[in-house]
Please model this.
Amino acid sequence: GNILIDGQNINAVTQNSLRDNIGIVPQDTVLFNYTIDHNIRYAKLDASDEEIQQAAKLANIHDFIISLPEGYQTVVGERGLKLSGGEKQRIAIARVILKNPRILVFDEATSSLDSHSEQLILESLKEVAEKHTTLVIAHRLSTIIDADNIVVLDKGKIVEQGTHQKLLEKKGLYAHLWKLQQEEEREKQQEEQLEKEQLEKDV
Model:
């Protein structure tokens, strides 16, 4: 088979050209043991400070950065260990925004995050995806409900395809997984509420 981008076979373009047009945010974001500024600027070395900050704003991370004593000059530690998972992911999103490729790929970008961090990142993705072709690979279905087209894979084969609403109406594999995940989320929220109430009683 062939992979076509805007009708052009990728075998007919150089690897550098292909890489220039694709930006990826993986599940396990790699950050360098340098400043936040350096980690974002890595995508476009000649970027201005204004461009860096604009990318951070779109990724919902600017306010957090300027709240730090060193701001954009904060060193993140080896592999970003001084930051939470959500903070690292939003810096990775800012990096991709700065690169401004035609195609964005988010590979399980929110799978290891709590619901609050996930929500912040989803807001970022919505803003960024409006002006780019965006592929989102996800097991957590809440991250893809706004997609124009959802492709459901089972054992390596496409079994369903459509919008979130259309797939729910089909009552197939996607609808089954959605129901399971919604039930899990409700149980999790109930547990968190009980823990919160218990802590308040203890105080």
In short: The chain has eight helices and seven strands. The chain has a mean pLDDT of 88.
